[in-house]
Backbone:
């Protein structure tokens, strides 16, 4: 299962980048779109909010946070929070096409794994059109606020460490890196050194142990399992189950997030978890969830231990939850930021992911990386002669 | 109130008698003696079902060995008395476990090679019924259509489908569970287990640390009945025609975790087994890679 994640990583971003060029370049520059009063999926006039037997708004079922709308507003659309409905429809059509064309299971890169066979490609996951140009609605420019000086320094240090991993390597032609697999064609020179390889626009160290590969590949962490819910290339489907005192928000690739509604506080500050701790309450018909207590091993855009996320779930139609989130971390960003998205109903069920049990990927990645390192070392030794 | 006496459990028919009691309009409170039904009717959820919500945990030695056993030293000499294997009378009602001859031999082999072969050591999902008596709490979250059971161990999740029953669509480590109410009792039938995982050298799934085991042919029928404010009666009938000569049954109480601030904290053991499974020397640390090394 890990292989799928590895392969799909970053694909949505790439699709949007392609689209931003294709679609937005063709748009009249001075379109003055007004904010539409409602989203493109208008609730039926006759719809009434269903309630659980104990009277809570019923949010239960299977939902997707999948979207073609980027988290941050593209620079080309600065000053415009919304597309017109015509633009949105055109964007959506083209996004579906790009999603299809760039599917990670394309025969030339993964002949044995066609994502479309399993309904895993983005366009197959119930994704809907949206008139928003970004999920972020605050700050009004639709972009993540500036990092604090402390956080900026930390980020720069991390980038420098990656550069140090491949001091002599020449960056390959970016044209070669549109797909994850073709970034490392067999026999290509200049793409891999003894210490690192180039993949998807970045140098990566050859992993020598699990600690050198991503948390997702290690089956330790998947962002979808915590707050906020953001689209992911692999799957963005969630299941919600409610009892009077708890709401379970289940993401397939993660452990269940159990939101306590019984008034208990967060655990003490020394109790830190991969997915943090979620408590919630109802404000009228809106479920409000607060998540804190993350550990220092995760990384949400540079934030972890001081991250506080507030989410608001409101069922606004039979097939739609209005989802709003606010992200705060005064040690990472100079101000808080907020986003929103419509989450659409999809068919279930969710299946057991069993990431760790099926982690062929990690075993193979490590054996291959160690083999490369050993081979390079042996060749180097042979060239230098006996030491 | 009735008291629980050793030896009494085999005579429990909590569901049948409770149903009868309700049907006849009888009040048994205070009259139940040994061998009689618990005179308890569970509080109801808003939709009228017995309310099983809460944090539940077994308090016994079944995770060490479902069958009776005496105390033994733990596997790590340095840990001394801190990690001894505690004794227990066992939870098998009609034991010994009715293994077919080959399976009895295999169980012995498992017992002798516990650390090398037990999937729990590698932080794998334990399946059913093992998850229910591991030494960790499990939270039941009960809705009308679905009951979720969230264990602390590895975040293991059981989804019990109370409607839309279907055959297991794919084999899974935790199985596919269809549930229904039989009066006071939640009845769950679970099938569709992964039985073999060649890459991980798993050829059977384990029921405890003593090497009792099952295969993909396992069919478990569990009956869960609330017998008091803070107790459940749990029983499971275990049927695997590939391994046993007949179905057999375990039973035990499950206890409510009463702490005010109770919650399921993360026990993400994947992180704790990385060195064991993927250590820097893959070949030494993880025998599953020795064949790959040979090929390379």
Residues:
């Amino acid at each position: 299962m890990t292989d799928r994640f590895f392969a799909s990583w970053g694909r949505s971003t790439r699709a949007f980048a392609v689209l931003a060029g294709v679609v937005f370049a063709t748009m009249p520059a001075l379109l003055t779109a007004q904010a539409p009063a409602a989203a493109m999926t208008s609730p039926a006039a006759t719809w009434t909010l269903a309630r659980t037997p104990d009277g809570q708004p019923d949010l239960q079922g299977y939902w997707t946070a999948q979207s073609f709308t980027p988290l941050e507003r593209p620079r080309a659309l600065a000053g415009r929070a919304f597309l017109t409905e015509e633009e949105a429809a055109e964007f959506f059509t083209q996004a579906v096409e790009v999603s299809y064309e760039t599917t990670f299971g394309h025969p030339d890169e993964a002949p044995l794994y066609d994502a479309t066979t399993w309904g895993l490609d983005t366009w197959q996951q119930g994704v809907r059109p949206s008139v928003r140009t970004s999920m972020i609605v605050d700050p009004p420019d639709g972009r993540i606020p500036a990092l604090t000086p402390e956080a900026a320094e930390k980020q720069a240090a991390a980038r420098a460490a990656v550069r140090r991993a491949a001091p002599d390597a020449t960056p390959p032609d970016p044209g070669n890196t549109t797909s994850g697999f073709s970034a490392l064609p067999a026999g290509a020179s200049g793409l891999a050194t003894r210490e690192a390889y180039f993949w998807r626009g970045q140098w990566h160290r050859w992993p020598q142990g699990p600690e050198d590969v991503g948390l997702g590949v290690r089956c330790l962490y998947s962002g979808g399992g915590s707050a906020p819910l953001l689209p992911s290339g692999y799957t963005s489907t969630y299941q919600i189950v409610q009892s009077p005192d708890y709401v379970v928000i289940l993401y397939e690739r993660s452990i269940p997030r159990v939101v306590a509604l019984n008034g208990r506080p967060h655990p003490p500050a020394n109790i830190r978890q991969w997915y943090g701790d979620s408590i919630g309450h109802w404000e009228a018909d809106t479920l409000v969830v607060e998540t804190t207590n993350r550990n220092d091993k995760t990384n949400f855009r540079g934030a972890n231990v001081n991250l506080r996320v507030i989410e608001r779930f409101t069922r606004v139609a039979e097939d739609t939850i209005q989802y709003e989130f606010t992200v705060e971390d005064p040690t990472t960003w100079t101000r808080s930021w907020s986003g929103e998205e419509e989450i659409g109903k999809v068919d279930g069920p969710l299946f057991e992911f069993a990431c760790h049990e099926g982690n062929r990927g990690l075993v193979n990645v490590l054996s291959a990386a160690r083999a490369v390192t050993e081979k390079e070392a042996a060749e180097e030794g042979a060239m230098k002669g006996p030491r | 109130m009735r008291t629980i006496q050793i030896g009494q459990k085999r005579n429990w028919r909590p569901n049948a008698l409770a149903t009868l009691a309700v049907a006849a309009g009888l009040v048994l409170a205070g009259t139940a003696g040994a061998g009689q039904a618990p005179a308890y009717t569970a509080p109801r959820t808003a939709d009228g079902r017995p309310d099983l919500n809460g944090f539940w945990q077994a308090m016994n030695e079944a995770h060490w060995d479902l069958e009776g056993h005496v105390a033994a030293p733990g596997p790590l000499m340095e840990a001394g008395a801190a990690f001894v294997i505690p004794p227990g009378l066992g939870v098998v009602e009609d034991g010994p476990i009715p293994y077919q001859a080959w399976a009895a031999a295999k169980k012995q082999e498992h017992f002798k090679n516990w650390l090398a072969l037990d999937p729990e050591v590698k932080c794998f999902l334990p399946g059913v019924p093992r998850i229910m008596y591991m030494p960790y709490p499990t939270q039941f979250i009960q809705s009308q259509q679905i009951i979720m059971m969230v264990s602390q161990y590895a975040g293991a999740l059981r989804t019990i489908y109370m409607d839309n029953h279907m055959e297991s669509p794919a084999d899974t480590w935790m199985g596919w569970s269809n549930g229904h109410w039989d009066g006071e009792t939640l009845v769950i039938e679970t099938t569709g287990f992964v039985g073999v995982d060649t890459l991980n050298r798993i050829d059977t799934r384990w029921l405890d640390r003593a090497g009792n085991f099952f295969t993909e042919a396992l069919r478990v029928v569990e009956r869960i009945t609330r017998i008091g404010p803070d107790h459940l009666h749990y029983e499971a009938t275990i049927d695997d025609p590939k391994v046993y000569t007949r179905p057999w049954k375990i039973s035990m109480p499950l206890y409510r975790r009463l702490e005010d601030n109770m919650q399921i904290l993360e026990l993400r053991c994947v992180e704790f087994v990385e060195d064991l499974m993927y250590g820097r020397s893959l070949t030494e640390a993880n025998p599953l890679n020795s064949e790959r090394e040979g090929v390379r």
In short: Chain B touches chain A through 50 residues (CB under 8 Å). Residues 1-41 of chain B form one domain. Chain B is about 15% helix and 25% strand. Residues 1-36, 281-296 of chain B have pLDDT under 50 and may be disordered.
